[in-house]
Write a structure and sequence with these properties.
single chain, about 150 residues, alpha+beta, three-stranded antiparallel β-sheet, 3 helices, 3 strands
Length: about 150
Protein backbone atom coordinates (compact mmCIF):
# COMPACT_ATOMS: atom_id res chain seq x y z
CA UNK A 1 0.00 0.00 0.00
CA UNK A 2 1.38 3.40 -0.95
CA UNK A 3 0.84 6.03 1.69
CA UNK A 4 0.24 9.64 0.75
CA UNK A 5 1.25 11.08 4.11
CA UNK A 6 3.45 9.62 6.83
CA UNK A 7 3.64 11.40 10.17
CA UNK A 8 6.53 10.61 12.50
CA UNK A 9 7.07 12.98 15.43
CA UNK A 10 7.87 13.13 19.14
CA UNK A 11 6.13 15.02 21.94
CA UNK A 12 7.87 16.25 25.07
CA UNK A 13 5.55 16.92 28.03
CA UNK A 14 6.45 19.70 30.48
CA UNK A 15 5.83 19.04 33.34
CA UNK A 16 6.60 15.35 32.93
CA UNK A 17 3.31 13.48 32.31
CA UNK A 18 2.83 9.85 31.34
CA UNK A 19 -0.32 9.54 29.19
CA UNK A 20 -2.20 6.27 29.55
CA UNK A 21 -3.47 6.27 25.98
CA UNK A 22 -3.03 8.18 22.73
CA UNK A 23 -5.99 9.03 20.51
CA UNK A 24 -5.34 9.92 16.88
CA UNK A 25 -8.35 11.37 15.08
CA UNK A 26 -8.41 11.77 11.30
CA UNK A 27 -10.10 15.06 10.41
CA UNK A 28 -8.67 15.36 6.91
CA UNK A 29 -11.42 14.91 4.30
CA UNK A 30 -10.57 12.51 1.50
CA UNK A 31 -7.92 10.64 3.48
CA UNK A 32 -8.25 7.34 5.31
CA UNK A 33 -6.10 6.50 8.29
CA UNK A 34 -4.25 3.22 8.17
CA UNK A 35 -4.78 1.79 11.65
CA UNK A 36 -2.09 -0.86 11.28
CA UNK A 37 0.54 1.87 10.84
CA UNK A 38 -0.29 3.67 14.10
CA UNK A 39 2.44 3.28 16.71
CA UNK A 40 3.17 5.17 19.91
CA UNK A 41 6.10 4.39 22.16
CA UNK A 42 7.88 6.01 25.04
CA UNK A 43 11.49 6.92 24.41
CA UNK A 44 14.28 6.83 26.98
CA UNK A 45 14.35 10.62 27.47
CA UNK A 46 10.61 10.68 28.32
CA UNK A 47 9.37 11.80 24.92
CA UNK A 48 6.41 10.10 23.30
CA UNK A 49 7.16 9.01 19.71
CA UNK A 50 4.07 8.80 17.48
CA UNK A 51 3.96 7.46 13.95
CA UNK A 52 0.97 6.95 11.64
CA UNK A 53 0.07 7.10 7.96
CA UNK A 54 -2.80 8.43 5.89
CA UNK A 55 -3.68 7.51 2.34
CA UNK A 56 -6.06 9.06 -0.14
CA UNK A 57 -9.52 7.54 -0.33
CA UNK A 58 -9.74 4.83 -3.03
CA UNK A 59 -12.94 6.43 -4.34
CA UNK A 60 -11.13 9.71 -5.01
CA UNK A 61 -8.31 7.87 -6.79
CA UNK A 62 -10.81 5.88 -8.88
CA UNK A 63 -12.74 9.03 -9.84
CA UNK A 64 -9.54 10.78 -10.93
CA UNK A 65 -8.40 7.80 -13.01
CA UNK A 66 -11.79 7.38 -14.73
CA UNK A 67 -12.04 11.09 -15.54
CA UNK A 68 -8.47 11.14 -16.92
CA UNK A 69 -9.05 8.05 -19.07
CA UNK A 70 -12.25 9.57 -20.46
CA UNK A 71 -10.44 12.85 -21.18
CA UNK A 72 -7.71 10.95 -23.03
CA UNK A 73 -10.29 9.11 -25.15
CA UNK A 74 -11.92 12.41 -26.08
CA UNK A 75 -8.50 13.83 -27.00
CA UNK A 76 -8.47 11.28 -29.82
CA UNK A 77 -12.18 11.29 -30.70
CA UNK A 78 -12.85 15.03 -30.99
CA UNK A 79 -10.37 15.80 -33.78
CA UNK A 80 -11.12 12.51 -35.54
CA UNK A 81 -14.93 12.66 -35.57
CA UNK A 82 -15.89 16.32 -35.57
CA UNK A 83 -16.46 18.16 -38.81
CA UNK A 84 -14.34 21.21 -39.57
CA UNK A 85 -17.23 23.55 -38.85
CA UNK A 86 -17.93 22.13 -35.37
CA UNK A 87 -14.41 21.35 -34.14
CA UNK A 88 -13.91 24.80 -32.53
CA UNK A 89 -16.99 24.38 -30.32
CA UNK A 90 -16.04 20.83 -29.40
CA UNK A 91 -12.49 21.83 -28.47
CA UNK A 92 -13.67 24.79 -26.39
CA UNK A 93 -16.03 22.45 -24.53
CA UNK A 94 -13.15 20.00 -24.07
CA UNK A 95 -10.89 22.62 -22.47
CA UNK A 96 -13.71 23.76 -20.20
CA UNK A 97 -14.44 20.15 -19.20
CA UNK A 98 -10.78 19.42 -18.46
CA UNK A 99 -10.49 22.18 -15.90
CA UNK A 100 -13.90 21.24 -14.52
CA UNK A 101 -12.37 17.87 -13.61
CA UNK A 102 -10.04 19.79 -11.29
CA UNK A 103 -13.04 21.55 -9.73
CA UNK A 104 -14.84 18.24 -9.18
CA UNK A 105 -11.94 17.01 -7.08
CA UNK A 106 -10.92 20.39 -5.61
CA UNK A 107 -12.42 19.68 -2.20
CA UNK A 108 -9.99 16.76 -1.90
CA UNK A 109 -6.94 18.62 -3.22
CA UNK A 110 -5.02 20.93 -0.90
CA UNK A 111 -1.94 21.74 -2.99
CA UNK A 112 -1.13 23.02 -6.45
CA UNK A 113 0.14 21.67 -8.78
CA UNK A 114 -0.77 18.03 -8.43
CA UNK A 115 -0.22 15.10 -10.74
CA UNK A 116 -3.81 15.64 -11.92
CA UNK A 117 -3.02 19.27 -12.83
CA UNK A 118 0.05 18.19 -14.79
CA UNK A 119 -1.97 15.55 -16.64
CA UNK A 120 -4.77 17.99 -17.51
CA UNK A 121 -2.21 20.50 -18.76
CA UNK A 122 -0.58 17.76 -20.85
CA UNK A 123 -3.96 16.92 -22.38
CA UNK A 124 -4.51 20.62 -23.21
CA UNK A 125 -1.12 20.84 -24.93
CA UNK A 126 -1.85 17.56 -26.70
CA UNK A 127 -5.15 18.91 -28.03
CA UNK A 128 -3.46 22.09 -29.29
CA UNK A 129 -0.81 19.97 -31.06
CA UNK A 130 -3.48 17.75 -32.64
CA UNK A 131 -5.38 20.82 -33.84
CA UNK A 132 -2.23 22.37 -35.33
CA UNK A 133 -1.50 19.08 -37.11
CA UNK A 134 -5.08 18.90 -38.38
CA UNK A 135 -5.02 22.48 -39.70
CA UNK A 136 -1.60 21.96 -41.28
CA UNK A 137 -2.73 18.74 -42.95
CA UNK A 138 -5.86 20.44 -44.29
CA UNK A 139 -3.84 23.42 -45.57
CA UNK A 140 -1.27 21.23 -47.33
CA UNK A 141 -4.07 19.15 -48.84
CA UNK A 142 -5.74 22.29 -50.26
CA UNK A 143 -2.40 23.56 -51.56
CA UNK A 144 -1.74 20.25 -53.29
CA UNK A 145 -5.22 20.27 -54.85
CA UNK A 146 -4.86 23.86 -56.05
CA UNK A 147 -1.60 22.97 -57.79
CA UNK A 148 -3.46 20.36 -59.82
CA UNK A 149 -5.69 23.01 -61.35
CA UNK A 150 -2.95 25.52 -62.23
CA UNK A 151 -2.58 26.16 -65.99
CA UNK A 152 0.66 24.87 -67.47
Amino acid sequence: MIFDAVFDFSIQFTPHVIPHFVRVVNRVPGFVSACDTLAAKREVDGQLAIKFSLYRSPLVKLAAVILCVAATVFLVLIPALESNERVATAVASYFFALWSIRNILSSQIRIFPTLLDCYVLTLCVGMVCVLIWRVHRRWTKRTAQSRLYLPK
